[in-house]
Amino acid sequence: MRRTLNSVLLLYIIMAIPSYELVIDLWQSDRYYAQMMHTSGVVSIFLLGLSLTVTPALMLVKHLPISIALGRWLLPRRRHFGLGSFYYASLHLVHYIRQVDDLEVVAYEALDYELTIGWLAFLIFAALALTSNNASQKYLKTKWKHLHRLTYLGTALTFAHWLLFDFFLDQALTWLAVLVVIKATHIAIYHNRKTA
């Protein structure tokens, strides 16, 4: 049982389940485009939020008996949640490019500020995904941590991209509020411990 719970392969299989229709639609093209974009975007943000929640959550339960076991399970998987998020962001982009079906139009539309912001967010997370491995961490040393702090900029750009399109605005604001509360809690706990 413990071996199953610790399986990274199982974690990736679970994260990939919502992508079934997204991948199938790339061949069949019989699903509603807006739904494919919404699903890929929301799941990407969910996994991104999960990766950002790990540290604050562990700080909140630090004094509970479960904290050590929870930390040992969550911390190594924070990177996997981020990679899962990038996978769905990539599907989001692929569905958009397939829908437009003209790379010149894609390049032209990228100049629209709401899409420019989306492209910038994607490029940031692409760089983070490519360096989310032990070899890059060892090679970059202290620069690796500075690079991966761009996660917060990428997250802000992602929400700006979503809000500017004004689709499912209530969902976007809800997700944004949750992440702001999580980060504010993280900062407050860190500041209190530093002051103490």
Question: How does this model look, in words?
Answer:
This protein has helices spanning 2-5, 8-16, 20-28, 33-60, 67-74, 78-100, 103-109, 113-130, 134-140, 142-148, 150-165, 169-195. The chain is mainly alpha-helical and 196 residues long. It has one domain. α6 (78-100) packs across α8, α8 runs antiparallel to α11 (150-165) and α9 (134-140) packs across α10.
Keywords:
globular; mainly alpha; 83% helix; 196 residues
Oligomer: single chain
Radius of gyration over all CA atoms, rounded = 18 Å
Low-confidence stretches: none
| Secondary-structure element string | HHHHHHHHHHHH
* Percent of residues in β-strands: under 5%
Mean model confidence by pLDDT: 89
User: Roughly how many Å apart are the termini?
Assistant: 41 Å
- Shape assignment: globular
- DSSP helix count? 12
Derived structural class: mainly alpha
Could you give a short account of the major beta sheet?
Answer: none
Estimated helix fraction: over 70%
Count of distinct strands? 0
Total count of domains:
1
Q: What is the strand and helix layout of this fold?
A:
Layout (H helix, E strand, L loop, with lengths): L1 H4 L2 H9 L3 H9 L4 H28 L6 H8 L3 H23 L2 H7 L3 H18 L3 H7 L1 H7 L1 H16 L3 H27 L1
Helix pairs in contact: 4-6, 4-12, 6-8, 8-11, 9-10
Summarize the structure.
The chain has 196 residues and is an all-alpha fold.
